[in-house]
Amino acid sequence: MELTVDDLASFIKEDESNLRLLRKFQMICSGERSSIKLNKSSDIYKKSNDSNTNDISNYEPIGIWQPQKKNGNIAFIRKESKDWMFWETSRKIIYKEKDKNVTARICMIGESVAAGMFFTPFFTPSIALEKMLSESNDEKYDVVDLTKNSISADDLISTVRASLQLEPEIIIIFAGNNWFSEAYFRNDSSISQRQIYSHIIENETPVNVTNKFEKLFKQKAKEILAELQKNIDNTNVKVIFALPASNYSGWDHKTPIPWLGEDGETSRWYRLYSESCQHMTDKNFESALEKGKEMLGIDGGKQPSSNRIVAISFMMLGMFEEAHKYCTKVIDYNNCFNLGTSLPGMPSFIKDIVRKECNNTNIDVVDLEKIFSSHLKNKILDNKIFIDYCHLTPEGFNLAMSSIAPKIKNHLSGGVAIEPKDWRSFLKESTIPKEGNEFKFAVSFFYIGIYTIHMNHCHYGDYNINTAKKFFRDAVSSSDDILNLMEDYIKARSCNFGNGFLLCKAGQRIIKKSNSPLDVPVARFGYGVDPEVIRTICEILDENGKKGELLFDEYLCQYVRLLDKKDGVDISEPQYIDQITSVIRLRLDSEINTRRHLSYFKAKWPKSSFYLASTCKSNIEITITCRLRDAVTNKAQNTTILVNDKLIQELTLSSKWKKIKFELPKESLIYGFNLFTVQWPNLQDNEASKLKEISRAFSTDKDIDLFPTFGEVFSIIAKNI
Amino acid sequence: MNIIGISSYFHDSSCALIQDSELVTAISEERFSRRKNDARLPIRSFRECLKAGHIDITDVDCVAYYENPYKKLERQLKSGFNTCSDFDLTWIDCHKPFREFSEILGYEGKILHYDHHLSHAAGSFYFSGFKDAAILTSDGVGEWETTTYGSGDLSSIDLFNSVKYPNSLGLLYSAITNYLGFKVLNGEYKVMGLAPYGSSYYLGKLEKTLTVNKGKLELDKKYFDFTQISRMYTDDLISLIGFPPRLPESEILECHMNLAKSLQVLLEKTLIEQMNYLKEKVNSNNLCMSGGVALNCVANSKIKNTKLFKNLFIAPASGDAGSALGAAALAHVDLTGERHSHDRLKSVSLGPLYGTLDIIDLLKSMECDYKHYPETDQLLESVASYIADGKVIGWFQGRMEFGPRALGNRSILADPRNPTMRDRLNALIKKREAFRPFAPAILNDHKENHLNLEHPSPFMLETCQVISNIDLPAITHVDGSCRPQTVEKSENKIFYQLIKKFYEKTGCPILVNTSFNVRGEPIVCTPLDALRCFGNSGIDILVLENCLIDRSMLSEDFKKMSEIEMDSVGMSQEAFSSTTKNDGVYSFI
Question: Does residue A259 form part of some domain?
């Protein structure tokens, strides 16, 4: 029988499951394997057309610095490119030839931590290092900062290679936080990857995707190191690899779990989660610990949220040694899935790989976690060193560089001029350029406060807002001129719900006071900045004699007015709170509804909260359209609506959209932003069949969701009555 | 009854809502996402339809999709789709649209789908007001059809003949557009605008690539290959034409202009032959046209001038965006047995509206100086004076238009008599190629004094000769033609009154009317889009409803920020990820 294209088309059209078979066939035909290949060098750094190729044809760009002839010398000139704002900003020209009076040239290559995010360009690890090296004597050192925020492994390697053109004596590689991105589970995986993952999902469990991630990541790390080694072989350059550290105590991240696989397990996990959070809120950490361990017993021990609960509990019980193990696991497995927001961090198993692979080479490894622990006399690293999950304070820069400086000195002197244990002699308060930079530090602290909001979702309490509050207060302590900027920030956020941020005068004033180009997107997009943050800033303004309350009222007003519109306002829309325009993957954060990806809100946690503005002058009519997804649909469990944690309404929902109307009496509201919470029923128990479904869908190139969805909200229309 | 029509996944994704037999709203996704020709599932537009109709997801009775993905798959498999652009062959998932309506839009109800060209036909016939009509649809390709011939009778449409892929007049035009270094699907309009500068020197050569006879159309495959990634023609075409393809953004030479003219002439000849065929087959004095080719307004005029058909209706949004309307209209017939309306579509002001109070709130929060005119008459008086003084106005009023043309709601307006205006608009404001002409908006009751045009032309879908005694360099193309919009008071009162004021001041009842956007961005939708565009261009005055902002009121910082904002709004989603897709030149095929 002759098969025709018509037959193929009919086959595909007939049933979606036929597509699955075709995908398998496609994979076999394409001959793809599951190995990770490093991408080819990015071509955005190819020589620009206006370079004078006659004289510089032997040179390649170093990142966005293009080779050119200048004053008769070869120089690398910073040029505009798509990603210009991510590269270190202070240096426009790098001459190939060192100044004659320079003792040594050191190239610093790395990610945002190495760049000194939030303090660049006025203070960075490179500046700290240069000062440290020069302070002890009259020698001059040229530390060339080639760092880039969010640099990929591939660009890291090409930057290392290209930096050799500068003939440095030393290259410092300060990276590893961003390497996870080619190993994690991607919802939009290639066909071959999908076959592998769908097999795991169906025959093992989604939780075992974590194991796959670990395996792939280790392989990737070895490849990166091999490439790096290849580039520096047969050179005289000394390479120091600084392994970044993570903030164990002072940062939280809330990651949902994928389906666990056994019927009823995931539901049980979430019940335990709710109970443990309640225990922590009640300061009953023994019980929280017990629940946390139970959760680990169910989820295989490699899920960030359960590890985090156990870690917090141990810390609060003063058991830091025990806590450390679980803190490490959080970092190790935080970034397995691209569905959640990634938190840059270098897993312990990757650090082990780096140490092992570099052992047989001339690459010196500096383990910053060990340095920091030794300094803090505590394995649980915290906010003394970090501003967030991995970025350092100025004190952190000092500490990191003081562990590297002696290695540089020793290498250059050809022996051991400085005992490694005396690295603390480099650690001086004076390295940090506080004088004359008070306002710059204030700006830094303010933006750090804003930035910390977007991912620091704690499991209990209001920890994240307190962290932000601390930074806002630090900003004011540094310079009270920052209060004007804070006022302008509120005004800019009040302009068309934040959409008009950059176009309004307040936003323009803010931008003028930025330290670095990256401050602009942090200020502008401020992902996660919500009324709670605005209120906090306004409180601090009030504390310092500014009209914070008035500004808060203006901010509130733009939302309250919406309630008087004929059709009311949909408070499940992100626009109601803040326009989400961030283009990075944060939009996929399961906890934040962006509407760029979906037409409606998906609840990944047992409770979903929205902000409802009110001046308490009238009752509010609520029309909610919602449905259950993976939660149980039997009438024994209702969905409840709470406002400011008080029960208002019970809803009986099904898996179909249902529109329900009810009235919120004004007595149940507070002036300002009220928390409107939907509390969903428990998850269904039938996981095995669910996973089969997911596996099949994934293998046919469909988008899937490995994380259970309790319920979905299409709209919550609020209208003054 | 609420029916939402959707066109999506290839270019210009759009949604339209027909509610209780009334066309309530129609919007293209690009206007919200700020990504030109946005082809993604129109999530924002879908929600806007619900909002405009005061309904929610539970109130939607039917979603109508503009195409048959199963038939399309057959064609793609058989004809050798340009597979290299998509290593994972995601396109073979023909179930995707319906699955995504459910999973992504959240829609739970009835879904109907219609053939691509049927949707085009419906997007024209059901909005024409005709009881009967001959129907011609022509575009690149739908499922298999590239041209269809049909007839409409009350509520039914019969497409009795067609031309099938790869024989396609639309793809031929796109191939030459590609040859001339313009972007396919975007640049065809530019080729049309370039044509008057040239002569039909290459007509004979181009005629060798195409055979037309009694409704049949055949491309010589030697010259075209639509399965390639970066071009649509073969080396044989290069040999035939005799000069190399033009590199994008390079200088436009005489040979390019001649090729554009030759192509235009060929298109017109072909369409007229097709008209003749249709006239033989369909007993009607009315003609409805739709499909991307129907956006060629120069050809439309030629068709009209043949007088083969007494009455002509061309869908204002003839491209795939308009098929969302067609699909919704077809669903209405299927569900009720009747077409939704027997009236002619009079207005395409179907998008969102922003009130003066909201605008004032916005301007206050921006600390932006402005002048508020409580009396509209005073506003019009001022604006007319500004235009007469040579100012360029960004004009934002009422509901946003649906379709590619700005028709007085989201427009840039200027004095057509000003000899430097065209160059100024092209260079500073639209930032586009110098050869491109601008279109006039003219008071309908004055048209015959200035244009060789006897009938209203409210949607800028045809061209005519300028016969005015007034010198109108900004809107007169090199061959003496223009693409007018006739404006009636009953259809757009405030725009009509503005032009009237200008006429009272100057004796000229015409304004330059070009779309309110700069090059590379979609037409503005919200007041904030308008402000951003204002800052990022050389527009002198911005009018947002009853508020007026003079450029001198803007700070340098504002202009700088507008530029930064323009770059970041609608930025590619791939900007921060490691994966990029290799888009072919015609990857939507």
Answer: no
Whether residue A596 sits in one domain with residue A559: no
Is A504's CB within 8 Å of B92's CB?
no
Nearest Cα to Cα of residue B323 among B345, B292, B347:
B292
The predicted pLDDT at position A34 comes to 43
What is the pLDDT of chain B when averaged over all its residues?
Answer: 91
- For residue A350, give Cα distances in angstroms to A321, A362, B241: 21, 19, 60
Q: How far apart are CA B358 and CA B355, in angstroms?
A: 5
Mean pLDDT for chain A overall: 85
CA angle A99, A102, A105 (to 5 degrees): 95
pLDDT for A20 equals 67
Asked if the Cβ–Cβ distance from A599 to B365 is below 8 Å, we say no
* B399-437 pLDDT, tens digit each: 999 999 999 999 999 999 999 999 899 887 777 777 778
- Number of domains chain A contains: 5
Measured CA to CA, the distance from residue B485 to residue B467 in angstroms comes to 16
Give me the interface pTM, i.e. the ipTM. Answer: 0.91
Instruction: Encode pLDDT of B65-89 as tens digits.
Output: 999 999 998 888 888 665 555 566 6
Residue A574 pLDDT: 60
CA-only gyration radius of chain A, Å: 27
- What are the pLDDT digits (tens) for A658-697? 999 999 999 999 998 888 889 999 999 888 888 888 888 7
Nearest to B56 among A19, A595, A659 (CB): A659
Model confidence at A419, in pLDDT bands (50, 70, 90)?
Answer: low
Nearest to A292 by CA among A338, A327, A251, A247: A327
Domain boundary pick from A431, A460, A492: A431
- Asked if residues A82 and A44 have their Cβ atoms less than 8 Å apart, the reply is yes
Last residue of a domain, one of A274, A300, A333: A333
* Residue of B217 and A452 predicted with greater confidence: B217
What secondary structure letter does DSSP report for A545?
T
Kindly give the residue spans of alpha helices, DSSP state H, lying in A40-190.
53-56, 112-115, 125-135, 153-163
Pairwise CB contact (< 8 Å): A507 & B561: yes
Q: Do A513 and A574 fall within a single domain?
A: no
Most confident of A181-195, A427-441, B301-315: B301-315
Q: Same domain for A165 and A216?
A: yes
Nearest in space to B344 (alpha carbons), one of B28, B135, B131, B52: B131
Cross-strand partners of A143? A106
Handedness of CA A55, A57, A63, A66 (dihedral sign): positive
Say which residue, A639 or A209, is predicted with more confidence: A639
Neighboring chain B residues of A503 at a CB cutoff of 8 Å: 366, 528, 531-532, 535, 558, 561-562, 565
Q: Chain A to chain B, count of Cβ pairs less than 8 Å apart?
A: 143
- B70 contact residues in A (CB cutoff 8 A): 9, 13
In this structure, the answer to whether residues A304 and A403 fall within a common structural domain is: no
pLDDT of residue A528: 61
Q: How far apart are the C-alpha atoms of B234 and B222, rounded to whole Å?
A: 7
Residue B101, CA atoms < 13 Å, CB-side half-sphere: 23
Q: Backbone phi, then psi, for A256, in 5-degree steps? A: -70, 170
Task: Judge whether A257 lies within some domain.
Answer: no
Structural domain containing residue A24: 1-31
Tell if the CB–CB gap between B561 and A714 is shorter than 8 Å: no
**Which residues in chain A have their CB less than 8 angstroms from residue B574's CB?**
none
Length of chain B equals 589
Strands B541-544 and B547-550: antiparallel
Chain A residue nearest residue B366, CA to CA: A504
* One domain, residues A89 and A165: yes
CATH number, domain with residue A672: 2.60.120.260
Q: What is the pTM of this model?
A: 0.91
Task: Say if A256 falls within a structural domain.
Answer: no
Asked whether the predicted pLDDT for residue B238 surpasses 90, the reply is: yes
Average pLDDT over residues A136-158: 89
